[in-house]
Amino acid sequence: LATKNFDNVYANVILEENGVATNFFKPDGTWATQDWVPIKKEKGSTANATAKRLAMCANNPVQTSLYAIGFDDFVHFAESSGRSAYFVNLGFLKVIDIAVVQDAENLLNIFALDTARHLWVKRQKKHSSSSSIEWDDWKSIDKTTELVELHAVIDAKGQLEVFAVGADDRLYHTRQMGTGTSSTWASVFPLGNPVPNSIFTVGKSAAGY
Prior knowledge:
Elements: E1 2-5, E2 8-14, E3 20-25, E4 37-38, E5 53-57, E6 65-69, E7 74-78, E8 88-102, E9 108-114, E10 119-123, E11 139-142, E12 147-154, E13 160-166, E14 171-177, E15 184-185, E16 189-190
Antiparallel strand pairs: 1-2, 2-3, 3-4, 5-6, 6-7, 7-8, 8-9, 9-10, 10-11, 12-13, 13-14, 14-15, 14-16
């Protein structure tokens, strides 16, 4: 995975034996280091992190936050993907897929599907008690629709939208009603007929749509 921030392109990978590593591509066309730099399992640990899946988000003010589904099925978070980065276990919810997007207030939002295939969100706190990013509790969005893959975007009005593939092979959608921690979510509903074995992604045009 890769994302651009401050003219650098930050790349994160899962290597052989499932190790998580990072590097970045500089504006002069060269890589920062010759080899991939491993990310640590946790603060103060000498062990390297491993993961099943990664997600990234270019965010403010941190260069590029990194998210992973660990082999314990929890979401793990690193505030940056630099050579000194390490993961923090966000706990409570075991998941099968994640997507991350920055909202209109420049706060990070992690969307996740739990092991029952239901949709949840975890939002960055607007005010932290320290210099580190802190998080609100996981909040359930839907407890009935079974989903297997998801993507999240911010729309032209600054509201968040989630698109997901259902267990029935349909594409589903929900959107944020309002903004901030008090916002609610529209019902998760299908956009059409089942399309088995489909691969999809979501993007936003220059006009914001």
